């Protein structure tokens, strides 16, 4: 083989080595593939719904608003009719998610909508704010099945960002929150 031909083949080989990852990445992008680690467990609300104009009423915190001045995210549980055993378990799961957030827990508020704030519940679920709200985006996400709970994540600016349908996995909620709260 000639010297010049050999050098050309070497140049083509070097170009192929550097072009191969670009071609593979382009193919994966066309196929809309994403690594599992980067996917949300909840469904992204598109476009984010504005809640800051709504004035919720909270049992514990009289100054509760969706737009938080302390820059805290809100995990809001939305209960369907007749909160019973499964609903109570979801409330306990939310407190467990809060405790598993460790140092990030101070940047997370827990709230529940559509559950009566009985003295027993107020004592059992000390971290939960029991709120009442007539916001249309939240009412649209209220489950119709008795004893079921959906969850949503509200950002510090008062925007509804993520939703989790009834039957969600609490560990998926924790994963999404740990990605959001830095």
Quick rundown:
By secondary structure, the protein is an alpha/beta fold.
Write the layout of secondary structure elements.
Layout: H1 3-30, E1 43-50, E2 57-58, E3 73-79, H2 85-100, E4 108-113, H3 119-124, E5 128-132, H4 136-140, E6 149-154, E7 159-164, H5 170-180
Parallel strand pairs: 3-4, 4-5
Antiparallel strand pairs: 1-7, 2-5, 3-6, 6-7
Helix pairs in contact: 2-5
Structure description:
The protein is α/β, with parallel strands linked by helices and 182 residues long. The chain is 36% helix and 22% strand. The protein has a seven-stranded mixed beta sheet with strand order 1-7-6-3-4-5-2, with helices on one face. Helix 2 packs parallel to helix 5.
Question: What is the chain-wise order of helices and strands?
Answer: HEEEHEHEHEEH
Overall shape:
elongated
Radius of gyration: 24 Å
Strand content: 15-25%
Query: Could you report the average pLDDT, rounded to the nearest whole number?
Result: 88
Oligomer: single chain
Structural class: alpha/beta
Helix content estimate: 25-40%
* Separation of the first and last Cα atoms: 59 Å
State the main characteristics.
alpha/beta, about 180 residues
